[in-house]
Amino acid sequence: MLKGKSLIEPMDLTLAELDEILKLADEIIQDPAAYADRCKGKVLATLFYEPSTRTRLSFESAMLRLGGSVMGFSSAESSSAAKGESVADTIRTVACYADIAAMRHPKEGAPMVAAMYANIPVINAGDGGHQHPTQTLTDLLTIKTLKGKLNNFTIGLCGDLKFGRTVHSLIKALSRYENIKFVLISPDELRVPDYIREEILMKNGIEFMEVERLENVIGQLDVLYMTRVQKERFFNEADYVRLKDSYIVDNKKMSNAKNDMILMHPLPRVNEISVEVDSDPRAAYFTQAKCGMFVRMALIMKLLGVE
Ligand code: CP
Prior knowledge:
Layout: H1 15-30, E1 43-48, H2 54-65, E2 69-73, H3 87-94, E3 100-105, H4 110-117, E4 122-127, H5 133-147, E5 153-158, H6 165-174, E6 180-185, H7 194-202, E7 208-211, E8 223-226, H8 237-243, H9 251-254, E9 262-264, H10 285-304
Parallel strand pairs: 1-2, 1-3, 3-4, 5-6, 5-8, 6-7, 8-9
Helix pairs in contact: 1-5, 1-10, 2-10, 3-4, 5-6, 5-10
Residues 52-55, 126, 135, 266-268 line the site of phosphoric acid mono(formamide)ester.
């Protein structure tokens, strides 16, 4: 039963709940008009203390397409956070006006604090370099739609695996499905955090390898998940400049990939995927962005208990 729950990280959902959301998202894709007023009279608050295009707008589009309304702020500067208001006070206030809230915050754990103080469901829309559970729902729906399954495949995750919260959440979620092999491709400085390697992968006996060169492994992958080097999480500019173009997928690299590999990216991209790849039928990142809206429609319905 998801009604009234908050979603802070992927493990807040059981596998059955996850599958329930993906199933509903698929039903919405098949017949969006049937859901056009399921959330009539309900209000979603989007509380974004950090920049966003896809997450905020897909949440807002999701609620509007369900017949509900949206309100919120898109930067800390345009809210009373700029005057020093705490997350706890903000969410208690917002809960007076909204039925559900999505929060993005640069501080890890801020949406969890909000959920502790709120009497409405709070959805983590990305907290610092920590987790991004609704991107994971988006990614799972994309893989399921394009590959037809969520088990028995090899996924390469490439780029900034240290600060990339989408990667942390996706590894956590996929670790619960059968026979997923992870190929972790990053510079030494940007390897996955120890808690992901030790607590998720090693503890659960999941097959994985860590490599530096994408060229050496691209031919083995069923899914390649590229990520941006997270400039905003670096402590110094020189390190960012040195690492930012570590990986660029172009047509030449794609020529060594399987014919049915799918190329994903949570976006925004900077240089990680050359625009020449956009016309390759294996490029799935804009389909992925669209899946984000449908899966957020399903999530909002489930957390609000709307049938
Ligand atoms: N994927 C994602 O989180 O994109 P935005 O930062 O644009 O929301």
